[in-house]
Structure formats: structure tokens, C-alpha cells
Amino acid sequence: MEAETQLDVSMSLSIFFLKNVGVWISNDPAEKRRMKILVLITLWNTMLGAVVIFRDIYFTFMYNGDILYVITNFLTVMISFVKIIIIMIYKKEFIDMILYMEKNFWNVKYDFQEEEILNNCRKTCIFFVTSVSTIGICAMISYAITPIIEYYTENLSERILPFHVWLNLPIISVTPYYEILFAAEVLSIYCVALCYFCFDNVFCILAVHLAGQFNILKHKFAKLCDTDSKISKKDEESRLAIEHVQVLYERFKEYVRRHQSLINYCERLENVYTVIILGQVVISSVLICLFGYQILVNDVSIGRRSIFVFLLLGSMCLLFMFTYSCNSVIVHSENIATGAYSALWTTMPMNKFGRMLRNDLILVIERSRRVCCLTANGFFPVSLETYTTILSTAVSYFTLLRNNLEE
Q1: pTM to 2 decimals?
Q2: CB contact set of 264 (below 8 Å; sequence gap of 6+)
Q3: CA 349, 352, 356, 359 torsion: positive or negative?
Q4: 258 φ/ψ angles, rounded to the nearest 5 degrees
Q5: What is the pLDDT of residues 61-73, one digit of tens each?
Q6: Burial of 88 by CB count in 10 Å (0-12 exposed, 13-18 middle, 19+ buried)?
Q7: Ordered DSSP codes for 314-344
């Protein structure tokens, strides 16, 4: 990426995480080989985590262990695994969207008001990306250090691993086998954690800047006919008046083409992320319920409780980031109609191009009423209302779960 030095904190951080999981491009052959190795390591460690969790579910169920704790870990790992698989399937289109955003959203000249809109988008992305990334890293660290804390604070006879491997071998807790297994599980946690939030960070950046471009286009439509020169009725058929309206009409056609390109970009974003959105929205209510329950369980250590505090905060923040980004696209794509109507079309003469401009503005308004939205695999559009619905569902699940377990 040539203009990488011009990127803001949110995109630089997201690209750093993408490079760590190997989902990036480069013109350097050595860098390409490194990316291929990293993506293989990520896939291997994510699958390794899934296998360990599958075994943990089986043996925990057989020996009546803490099945809710294991199911919570299983859902978290599986979401990460599904995300990396889908992104690898759409890798080319995923990277193309990022490069398109850099070229057509950022490296463009804007006026003062439009630059303010773009800066607000950047501030929003920085807030979400840094918050979600920080909470995700804290949860990852908590998973890694909890076995160490429990070993020293609870005076355990044997050292334990972050996840139970269910191997009846005495050498597991013996050096160096313990250290090797511990490092393998920590590396698996690292890959799963990055896959859990790094692709969602990129989605937030793409969606928020897409909404910002709709807002900028609304501003352009609103000032389309804003001109210092007033055209009187007696001059409306003059050569200067005709040329003036013709220039405005050509500018209007540029804005329409821009509107169409943003709609196409939204469809591309929907195509890549729609299954991820569905999985995140459907599973989030269950995860929030389970995270909250694990925090309130009485017989867990402080280390394990800290894990689920960070997971609960991260899940709620991540879900809010998803729904806020999708809601922004809906709101600002619909506001194009307001911008088109706000154009000073009443000052235009009723000549050929003046009438064409009025008629085409009506078409823009009608098209904008069909809002652009990002859906959960086509089942329903995602908005801030989805966020409140999921939280309400999670609270209902939590209440039902506590009542059943107390009985």
C-alpha cells in the first residue's frame, strides 16, 4: 500500500493485525511468502483451538464438568474460525475494497465542510477500533495468565494449561512438555483473538467511511445550484443562462455517478460480510448471556472472572460497533434525498436543462428512499434497533438460565 503513511490510527492498527494473520497483499516476493506462511499458521492454530475445544466439550459432558464454560469458549472459537474462512474466500474483494476506499474516499480533495465530515468518520473509527482491540488484547492476556495466577494463588499440585487437553499423561506438567503445550495454546489464543476482532474493525472502517461519503454527497447535492449569479426570467433563454445550467447539469451527472458507485460499494461490502454479520448478530445474544453468567458464578477464580469481564465488554462493544456502522449507512444514504431537495433548483430557469435537472432530482430523491443497508445474510437489515433487541434477548436468556440452574 503506497500511501500507508497517510493512514489514520484505526486503519494502521487494522492493517497491522491483518498482516499478523497473513490476510494482506504486497508486491515484495519475500513479503508475499511471509503472508502465506502467516495465514497457514493462523488457520492451523485456529483449527487446533477448535479441536481442543471439541475434545473439551466431549470430556466435560462425559464427566459432568463446567459445560457452560466450555460452550462459551467453543462459540468464541467457532466465530473466529468462520470469520477467517469467509475472509479467505473473499480475500481479493476484501483487499480491493480497502484499496478503493483509500483511493476514492481519502485521497480526494474536499472543501472545509466535507473535510470535517471525513475527520468525524476517522475519529469514530479510531474510537471503535482502539476500544475493541484493547479489550480483545486484555481478554487474550487474561486467558494466558489465568493458569499461572491460579497455580500460585491456589497452591495447586500440578501446573495447568489455559485449556484442558484431556490427556492422561504425567509428562504434561513436566518441563519442557508443559512449556511447549502452554506456548502452543497461547499462540492458538492469539490467532483466535485476532480473527475475532480484526476483520470486524475493518468492517467498521469501511462502513463508517461509506456513510461519510453519503453524507459528503448530500452536502454536494445541497450546494449544487448555489451560485452567486441570479438568473432573471428575461435572461433564462440567453446563451449565458443556457450554458450556466448546462454546466450545473453536467456536475449533477457526476454526483449521480458518484451515488451509483457508493451503492455498488455497499453491495460489495454486503457480499463479503453478510454471513459474518448474521453469525455475529445471532450468536451475540447467547454469548452475552453466557459471559454475564460466568462473571456471576461464585466458585470461579478472579483470573477466570476477569476473562469474562473483558469478553462481555468486548462483545457488547463489538456488537455496538457493528450496529452503529450499519445504522450510519442507512441514515446517511436516506439523507441523500434531503440534500437533493435542498438544492436551489427553484432558481434555475425553465429551459431544457433546467427542466431536465428538476426531473432528475426527483429520480435521485425517489432512489434515495430505497435506503442502502447491510443485512444479516438477507434476513433483516442491521441497525441500532438490532442492538437493543439483542441486549433484550440476552437479558431474557440470562434470567431463564439462572432460574433453571437455581432450581
Answers
A1: 0.86
A2: none
A3: positive
A4: -65, -40
A5: 777 667 778 888 8
A6: middle
A7: HHHHHHHHHHHHHHHHHHHHHTHHHHHHHS-
